[in-house]
Specification:
This protein has 457 residues and is of the alpha/beta class. It contains twelve helices and 23 strands. The radius of gyration is 23 Å and the shape is globular.
C-alpha cells in the first residue's frame, strides 16, 4: 500500500541531501512524497542546530503536528512523527521527554536504519531514540537514488569536523571527519548525470578536508576527486562547499586554475578579521593566513569570486577587533557573504566564555558589516552588466516564458527564453543588476534575444 511521506528540511545543503536519501531509504516501504504534512502518514523534521533558537522552533512545529495527527486519528488514519538531523542528535532525550508523542528521534548518521526504526515505531512499543555514531558508515547501507535531483544536484562526499571551533556544534552533532570512497562518489556522480544533472555541488561540513581512500589503497584529496569528476561526460559544472582555510592544499588550489568545470566561485568562511578573536574561536589560522590563501587562489584563477561567513559580537570582541574584520572585508572584496550575531550554543566552549557582548553592540556591528558586504555584492553584480556570460538554466520562473539560472559566480539570472533551453548552458548578455540577481537576454549572433523587462530591485 502506498503511504505518504512529508519531510521538512531545515538548514544546510547537507540536510537537503540527507532528506532526499531518507526518501530513498523509505521508498521500498511504500512511502511517496506529499507536499502537505496534514496528508502524510509520516512526517520527518530534518533539523539544523546552527541557527538561534533552533530547538524551540522544532518544538513549535511538533505542537502543530500533534494537532494534525489528532485530526487524522479522528478520521481513522494515523501519522508517524519523527525528528531527525542535528537537533535530534544534540537534544534527543529532551525531545523524547518534552514531546513523548514523537515516535522517532534519530541523528544524521543513523537514517540508513529507518526501516527498522519504522517497524519499531509502528508496533507502538514506545518512542525510538537513535543518536549513536555507528562504527559502519551509513553510506555503505544506503540504496541507490530512486530519482534524479534535476539539473543542479548535491553529492555528499565528507561529513563531520575535527576542528572544534569554540562556537560550533558540528563536531558534536555530525561527529568526526569521515570521507566516502572515491569509487562510491564517482558512481553516484555518474548516476546523477544520467538522471539529468549538469552541475554537481560536492558537500561536506569541512569538504576540502576530504581524504577518501580508494580501492588500491591510495588516499585522494578533493583536488584529485574534482579532476576525476571532470572526466564524466555531460557534467559541465562542479562546485564544493563548505571549506576551511586550513585545508586549501596546493593541489586543490591548482585545480581552480586547471579544471574548466570547476566554477570560479568559492565559499571560504573566515568568521572574523581579528587574530585575537580567531584564536578565541580556535580557528587555528590568522587573518593574514587567510589573505595569503586568497592571494594564491586568485593567482590560480584570477576571476575567482568569494563568499564567506562572519560572526560579530563573539565573546570578548572589542571595537578594535571589529575594525579588523571590516578591514579584512575591504581587503578581500566579496561577491556574497553571510553574517550573523553571535549566539551561544549549549555545550560549546564559547557559551561559557567571559565578555559576552550586549545585544545592542552586536546589532550595531552587524548593521555596519552588512552595509559594507551589501555594497560589495551590488558592485560585483553591476560589474557584469553589458557582459555575456554562460548561465546554466536550472529553474523555471514564476512568469510565463521565464527561465532562471546560475552564473559561474552563483548569481541568479532571470530571462525570457524558450523552454527547450531548460537544462542547458546558454550565453546570456546581462542587461541589469540588483542586490541579489541579474537579468539578461539570450545571445544569438550579435543580438540579444528577448531581454526581460526590468524587475523591481
Amino acid at each position: 500500500m502506498t503511504k505518504k511521506l512529508f519531510i521538512k528540511t531545515y538548514g544546510c545543503q547537507m540536510n537537503v541531501y540527507d532528506s532526499a536519501r531518507m526518501a530513498d531509504v523509505l521508498a521500498p516501504l511504500g512511502y511517496v512524497a506529499t507536499p502537505a504534512p496534514e496528508d502524510a502518514d509520516m512526517v520527518i523534521l530534518n533539523t539544523c542546530h546552527i541557527r538561534e533558537k533552533a530547538t524551540e522552533k522544532v518544538f513549535s512545529e511538533l505542537g502543530r503536528l500533534r494537532e494534525q495527527r489528532r485530526d487524522r486519528k479522528a478520521s481513522g488514519q494515523d501519522m508517524i512523527i519523527a525528528v531527525a538531523g542535528c537537533v535530534a542528535q544534540a537534544e534527543g532525550e529532551e525531545i523524547m521527554a518534552r514531546a513523548p508523542y514523537v515516535d522517532m528521534v534519530f541523528g544524521p548518521q543513523t537514517y540508513h536504519a529507518l526501516p527498522e526504526m519504522v517497524a519499531q515505531a509502528t508496533r507502538r512499543t514506545g518512542g525510538v531514540l537513535n543518536t549513536d555514531f555507528p562504527l559502519e558508515s551509513k553510506f555503505d547501507h544506503l540504496p541507490e537514488e530512486s530519482a534524479g535531483q534535476g539539473v543542479s544536484a548535491f553529492l555528499s562526499v565528507q561529513e563531520g569536523c575535527d576542528k572544534f571551533c569554540t562556537f560550533c556544534v558540528v563536531p558534536y552533532t555530525r561527529g568526526a571527519e569521515y570521507s566516502r570512497t572515491p569509487e562510491q562518489i564517482l558512481a553516484e556522480a555518474r548516476r546523477l548525470v544520467a538522471g539529468g544533472a549538469r552541475e554537481i555541488t560536492l558537500l561536506g561540513q569541512n569538504v576540502n578536508a576530504f581524504h577518501g581512500q580508494a580501492a588500491d589503497g591510495t588516499v585522494w584529496g578533493l583536488g584529485r576527486l574534482i579532476r576525476e569528476m571532470a572526466g564524466i561526460a555531460g557534467l559541465e559544472r562542479i562546485r564544493y562547499t563548505t571549506s576551511h582555510p586550513r585545508d586549501m592544499d596546493d593541489d586543490l588550489i591548482a585545480a581552480h586554475g586547471e579544471v574548466p568545470q570547476l566554477m570560479p566561485f568559492l565559499h571560504l568562511p573566515v568568521q572574523s578579521g581579528s587574530d585575537r578573536i580567531l584564536a578565541a574561536m580556535n580557528r587555528k589560522h590568522g587573518a593574514d593566513d587567510y589573505r595569503r590563501v586568497v592571494d594564491r587562489l586568485r593567482a590560480a584563477r584570477p576571476d575567482l569570486a568569494l563568499s564567506s561567513d562572519f560572526i560579530v559580537g563573539f565573546p570578548g570582541e572589542t571595537d578594535r577587533d571589529f575594525a579588523d574584520t571590516l578591514r579584512l572585508v575591504t581587503d578581500i572584496g566579496y561577491a556574497q557573504a553571510y553574517s550573523f550575531k553571535y549566539s551561544a550554543r549549549p555545550g560549546t566552549p564559547a557559551s561559557g566564555m567571559d565578555g559576552q557582548a550586549p545585544e545592542s553592540a552586536k546589532s550595531d556591528r552587524l548593521a555596519a558589516l552588512q552595509q559594507l558586504l551589501n555594497e560589495q555584492q551590488i558592485a560585483f553584480n553591476r560589474s557584469t552588466v553589458g557582459r555575456t556570460i554562460p548561465v546554466l538554466l536550472d529553474r523555471r520562473g514564476k512568469r510565463e516564458g521565464q527561465l532562471v539560472g546560475r552564473s559561474p559566480h552563483m548569481q541568479s539570472v532571470y530571462l525570457t527564453a524558450p523552454d527547450r533551453l531548460f537544462g542547458t548552458v546558454a550565453e546570456v548578455c546581462i542587461t541589469d543588476a540588483f542586490a541579489n540577481s541579474l537579468t539578461g537576454g539570450i545571445v544569438t549572433g550579435k543580438h540579444v534575444h528577448q531581454p526581460m523587462e526590468r524587475l523591481s530591485a
